[in-house]
Specification:
alpha+beta, YerB-like fold, 4 domains, six-stranded antiparallel beta sheet, 15 helices, 28 strands
């Protein structure tokens, strides 16, 4: 099978290119999820480890170490004539999953023969790549797999009616008249198990070769214009401009088999469907939306135990919450301030909203969302920076982001961090935990159209072994001190009137501003000169408390990446509430320690019940208010 041979060679080339040697320890960990470096020998053992009957949680590839290797461009003549470029590597996981999943487009003997051939080339000496690939032969999808459930239009629940017509297929394959005859279900079985792998046409209205040519042209154009390709400089190999090396993946993309989240209905032949994986993110162009997961450990990561929050008051807002809600870990969601990306989905659910500058003279937002389980669309999502992680940690959240930068290495992949990322977690490397749960929409262009849903978050947490309940040892219930009643600052020394807050000196691109609504007692936020709203409900976001936190900072490199001193005890800021403002100081003593705010008399400030905006200001830049 050409696609398998090419794919496996690509895996090998990449491992050799990066100089990383793969190792694999096959441990039997059973915590509600399939672990890819665990070898299951029966369907029953796999189902037992899953802890669920949801077949979408089954993951049959078991190639953790290989797919966590950083994919890169390499000369097209590497290892003979094998082509290995970023687009090819980007599709390797998808290829293997499609080959091994319910489509049954690869047999046990096909994989076994390839393993034997590869071992022979190694003179009978197995290496780590061989061991990992060979472990797939223990997969119940290849050995003792259940027979597919097939109807006239569906194969294992997947609807193929858009690409298959039994009468057309039978007329195109007269050799099947004697063996199958006019049996629509069995003809569909033949089409899925045999015809698709060969790129055969299943009806008169869809030609997979024409569709593939159009999609590949779009992929090539995106690759040629991508930042990662241009950065290679002179002598760079030409991109292959291939979406995939498997016909099954073109069919799967057209039919929407790789989509996730709330927008799975947009399954058209357009080159911009909701499952689109071409395009670029701001930090890395190798999209992994179609399923590249990292399930390297499905047990809860470094958790001493589950924290039991007994208070019925939210630590974020002081509002009454249920016990279930009080014990649910929040999401820390990276959202852009880009004008083209507005409005965001789910931002009004943020009880805490951070805004911090980054490189390029633009700011970014991190939304702390405690009540997230009902959201069908969250985002759009952008990459993270190191200082956001330190701001996030004190809330013990699940961090949702789309990649990051190299400065995050060592922190983002620490054993305490639980993050879900749409691509490599620190941009130039790391894992991509939960990447298969992200999806793209049609209403905006990349990088402004990447999202995740609450169900996607929950599935990713199961796959990664993340606890969705607060973790003992990390969670701290002593954050803000809230006022008994209403704090009007009327008696506060040095209080000034502040019904309008202008942050354009701090955030010159977003020009964030706040206008106090006296009748409601909250500040309404504006961005780019207009109301900042939530795309879900169209409402302008508002806050009972606005904090400006002056912070030491520096430029880290020539690219303009910034660093902020998020753990400190010597800086000041401002607190705004109820149309007034006072000068404050702040301190944070450790990663998971809460940031505390004090008035000039040394008393901890008392926030008003409601949501809080925290603007991290570069020291030397001040808010304007009147």
């Amino acid at each position: 099978m050409k696609s398998l041979r090419t794919m496996c060679s690509a895996f090998l080339c990449t491992v050799l290119t990066t100089g990383l040697l793969c190792t694999s320890a096959f441990t039997n960990v059973s915590y509600g999820a399939v672990v890819r470096n665990t070898v299951f020998t029966t369907t029953a053992s796999m189902s037992s480890a899953l802890g669920t009957t949801d077949k979408t949680m089954w993951n049959p590839s078991f190639l953790t170490e290989v797919e966590n290797t950083y994919w890169s461009f390499a000369p097209s003549n590497m290892l003979g004539s094998t082509e290995i470029t970023l687009d090819m590597a980007k599709n390797n996981y998808r290829n293997l999953e499609m080959l091994l999943d319910n489509g049954y487009t690869m047999s046990y003997s096909t994989l076994s023969s390839y393993c034997d051939e590869y071992l022979a080339k190694k003179n009978g000496s197995p290496d780590a790549f061989y061991n990992i690939l060979h472990s797939c032969l223990g997969n119940p999808y290849l050995t003792g797999r259940p027979e597919a459930t097939v109807t006239a239009t569906t194969y294992n629940g997947r609807d193929y009616s858009k690409v298959f017509d039994a009468a057309y297929y039978l007329s195109a394959h007269p050799e099947l008249v004697a063996s199958i005859g006019n049996n629509p279900a069995e003809l569909l079985r033949h089409f899925v198990e045999t015809g698709i792998a060969k790129g055969e046409v299943g009806n008169a209205s869809f030609n997979v070769a024409t569709y593939a040519a159009s999609l590949d042209a779009s992929v090539l154009n995106t690759q040629l214009s991508s930042a990662s390709y241009k950065a290679l400089g002179t002598g760079k190999p030409a991109p292959t401009g291939k979406y995939s090396y498997s016909w099954a993946n073109y069919y799967g993309r057209y039919l929407g088999h790789y989509t996730a989240g709330a927008l799975t209905q947009s399954n058209t032949s357009s080159s911009k469907t909701s499952s689109q994986t071409v395009g670029t993110d701001d930090d890395i162009d190798s999209m992994m939306l179609d399923g590249a997961e990292d399930n390297s450990a499905a047990t809860p990561k470094n958790v001493v135990g589950t924290y039991s929050e007994t208070s019925s008051k939210s630590v974020y807002t002081n509002e009454t919450v249920t016990s279930t809600q009080a014990n649910l870990r929040p999401l820390a969601v990276m959202m852009p301030t880009d004008k083209a990306a507005q409005p965001s989905y789910g931002i009004s659910q943020a009880d805490i909203l951070y805004e911090i500058m980054e490189e390029g003279g633009i700011s970014r937002q991190m939304a702390i969302i405690p009540n997230w389980t009902g959201l069908s669309r969250i985002g759009n999502l952008r990459s993270c920076r190191l200082y956001y992680i330190y701001a996030a940690k004190e809330w013990d959240p699940i961090l949702i982001h789309f990649g990051g930068v190299a400065y995050m290495k060592g922190v983002i992949n620490g054993p305490d961090m639980n993050n879900i990322s749409g691509t490599y977690e620190y941009g130039v490397g790391g894992k991509a935990p939960g990447a298969g749960q992200f999806f793209r929409s049609n209403d905006r262009t990349a990088p402004h159209n990447a999202y995740i849903s609450a169900s996607g978050v929950q599935k990713a947490c199961v796959q990664q072994g993340y606890s969705t309940n607060l973790r003992a040892g990390y969670y701290n219930s002593k954050h803000f001190t809230f006022a008994d009643g209403v704090n009007t600052l009327s008696d506060a020394p040095g209080a000034q009137s502040a019904t309008n807050i202008d942050l354009s000196e701090i955030f010159p691109y977003s020009k964030s501003k706040f206008t106090y609504n006296a009748s409601q007692g909250v500040y309404y936020k504006s961005i780019h000169g207009g109301a900042q709203t939530d795309a879900i409900n169209g409402k302008q976001i508002s806050f009972a408390n606005v904090i400006i936190q002056n912070t030491k900072w520096k430029q880290l490199d020539k690219k303009g990446y910034l660093g902020f001193t998020m753990i400190d005890s010597t800086e000041d800021g401002y607190y705004f509430t109820k149309g007034k403002c006072i000068h404050i100081t702040w301190k944070k003593t450790g990663d998971y320690a809460p940031t505390k705010y004090y008035d000039d008399a040394g008393n901890e400030i008392k926030l008003n019940t409601g949501k809080t905006y925290i603007g991290i200001a570069q020291k030397g830049k001040s808010p304007k208010f009147s």
